[in-house]
Amino acid sequence: MARPSDLLQGTLDMLILKAVFLGPRHGYGVLLRIQEISGQRLEIQQGSLYPALYRLERQGLIESEWGESENKRKARFYRLTAAGRRRLQQETRDWNRMADIIAGILKASPEEA
Amino acid sequence: MTLFAPLRAWVRAIVHRSSLEERLDDELRFHIESYTDDLRRSGVPLDEARRRAQVEFGGVEGRKEECREALGLRLLDELAGDLRYAFRQFGRSPVFTAVVVLSLALGIGANSAIFGLMEAAVWKKPISVREPERLALFSWASGPRALMNSSSGNWRRSSTGGRSSTSFSYPVFEILRGQEKLFETVFAFKPLGRITVVVHGEAELIPAQLVSGDFYRGLGVAPAAGRALAPPDDVRGGTETVAVISDGYWARRFGRNPAAIGTRILANQVPVTIVGVNAAGFTGVDAGDRADVFMPLRALPLVFPPRHARPLSLLDDPDDWWVVVMGRLRRGVTHTEAQTAVEVAFQQAIKATLPDRADRDQPHLQLLAGSRGQDNLREEFATPLVVLMALVGVVLLLAGANVASLLLARAVVRRRELSLRLALGAGRWRLTRQLLTEGLALGVLGGALGLVLAYWTRAAIPGLLLPSWAAGELHLNPEFDGRVLVLTLAVTIATTVFASLGPIAQALRVEIGASLKEGGRAITAPAARHGTWLVVFQVCLSVSLLIGAGLFLRTLSNLRSVSLGFRPDQVVLFAVDPPRARYTGHARRALYARLDEAIRTIPGVETASVSAAPLVSGGSATTNIGPDGGPVGIENKAWVNDVGSGFFETMGIPILAGRSFDEHDHEKSAPVVVVNRQFARQFFSTDSPIGKTIRNNDLLYEVVGVCGDTPFGRLRAPVPPTFYRHFTQAGELGAMTFEVRTAASAGAIVNAVRAEVRAIDKDLPVFDVRTQTQQIDGTLSRERLFVALTSAFGLLALALASIGIYGLVAHGVSRRTNEIGIRLALGAARRDVLAMILREAASLAALGAVLGVVAAAALSRYVRAMLFGITPDDPVAIGAAVAVMMAVALLAGWLPARRASRLDPMVALRHE
Hints:
Chain A is an alpha+beta fold and 113 residues long. In chain A, 53% of the residues lie in helices and 14% in strands. Chain B contains 28 helices and 27 strands.
């Protein structure tokens, strides 16, 4: 397993939105999915997950309800809202643009005077 | 939409708090269990899996807290926690908390009550009329020698001896009404006092007012039902008299039955038809008016038939000034413009109606702002209310000081706890918030209690300002509206924040290291200093209040010991006012004589009498007098009272020379008077007045007796020269008061009296029943109120100050236990230790007392007018106040001092 990179809070939010975008999941499931789609290269600190989920729910980007897990236990399932979908698209665009800009800066070679 | 989402979520989180907690619980547990399962599936044994899952997840409680914070609940939780903590603290020292909350409640509550009263009496929004700023009140001012021969109503004496009044003669009013260029309308009114009204056969007395036809139009008030009075109703010689009743009377008497309109009632025996009902809350122009029935001015000769001695009715007499005139200025006309122009018209009107009187002073017109009518309330109550507010403000300061000292003391005691918190990472703002919450909790408790107190007592204070049986006359209704609530809230918050500043500053200045160790003495010094100044402040306030209480007490006692010259005990008073339409002139006098006789026959009555003015009732009746042959100048003024034969005997006034009235004095016999000693001295110096004649206006009277001096209307005024006429020989009589000397109780006698009166005339109500002592006390109601308030507040202040001193000294002793132990061990006598501690308490109290005396001296000039027989720097009052304060202070300090002197040196030395 790769060393878990340091994640900014904003980034975690984006990842959660993406994970939930792929289908409604409970909290643990969101964690597993993020790790899964990152190819096990990303390990999220378990403790910071739920505060983020609650924050996103408070902002109206995801919504939740009680449901039944795979092993018939009561679990809270999270789903993306329309606002959440819009935010995800926007964040993706912003991230990609920022990555381009940074990559461009990093590619710059020392100029001849 | 997303803007509101967090707010909605927050509200939902609060409302469904328990289900939220459940969800958190369930969710986090599910997560850990799922992870445990996964670990087990990958081969980790159960116990190990469970342990790893929990460790990797981290502290569940901490996570929960983070979730709660993410939901925005932290502030609320912390506030709730602070409040719970605060109340636990309050529970631990209940007595002190109760004292502080109570004193806050008294201060805030009294403040609110007085504020409501000030609003009603002094600052009240002007009556609800159209554009009140355009209303003007006509008034005139002149030198001391009034131009007219008779005037009634509101008048004032200026400091230079001049007169001013709002009363005009009706002929002058009619001329002023023609000022159409300046005024839209000029209208007039006259409060009548109480008249007898018979509705459906039942008679009662209700306050009435006469108004001119333009009154309603001029004020711009519309009736709530029926119609208002209009100019056609005020035409002389009209057939039907109409009236408009007040909303209150409509509710009381007619139960708001619409059939009331059109009902015929009798007003002083005059048939009157009700045509309308005023809007609720409208009872006249003046702020204190409480008229229940309004009739046109032209009804005056019907309701009060012309006096026997005067040929002209009040509507025609230019020499009797009685009606109040107001006007509504035209738009664009300023007060000053109107004033100049109307003054010219006024002078012309005087010239047209009155003969030239060179020996009198010419009056000049003044236009006053009319939005509050004649503003009687402000006149009478402004100063006492301001003084009351000052008193109450002082109490509030005291309460604030107490809250401050309590919080300060607690902050000092908790310094170790506070520094621990700081060391553990609490922010200073967080600590401040907690201390502030505690202070505000106290404040809100006190403020809420105070508001309740104010609401309960809101009727009591105006009641205390007036004699009990006349409380209905003056309508002072302190409104408990939003302004009072807002003020209360503001005062509460301001007091508590202010009081919390000291402890908070104290807490934040705590040095962590030093105070964590035992005995951080360096910290307590500044706190002790603040505490000292607070106690000095409390003592200063207490002494000021006590001095005030002493001054008012002595004033009251001086007033009560004014020699009355008569015996007030066991005398019952009641009044009768026969309607003029039925009883006038001879018939009226005969009625009074019949009543006088009938009352005397009642078993249990020792003697009885009748008089125009009851003694010491606040009234005044003066007339011009002169020894026969001498000039009847206006300066020769005497007080007059028309009485029955048994008057002097009933009231216990001694006859010093000559005789009293007897059965020989009646309408047909020679007119005689009895004068009091002051009169004899003033008009006859050392000669005996018996047998001499005096002149009163056009009539001559022979003096047949001299009686003892008694105060006339007020105890404060010096005894005036008074002469007494027999009522059968007086002119037209007004309402009369009967005095009954009886050993029985007032209630028992009154029933018999009512029966006798009803037997003579069933429509004659008996009213204003009271005892002579109650009446005299009634004139002292304001003084009694102030004595009660200042004493109560003074005692409260004393209690608070003594608690403060006790606390301070006790704290000092515990702080210096070590030092005291050293002293005792080195051989100091216990008495010396006691003296040392007491000396410090005494010097504190002395300093505060000196400041208190200075403060009282500075403020007392405002109450000079309310004192009687003493000056504000009365040494007895000041000395007593200081003595009481010092005694209480020494007592308060003595207890902890005694404990200090009893310390076991060995224990004390080991104390930190």
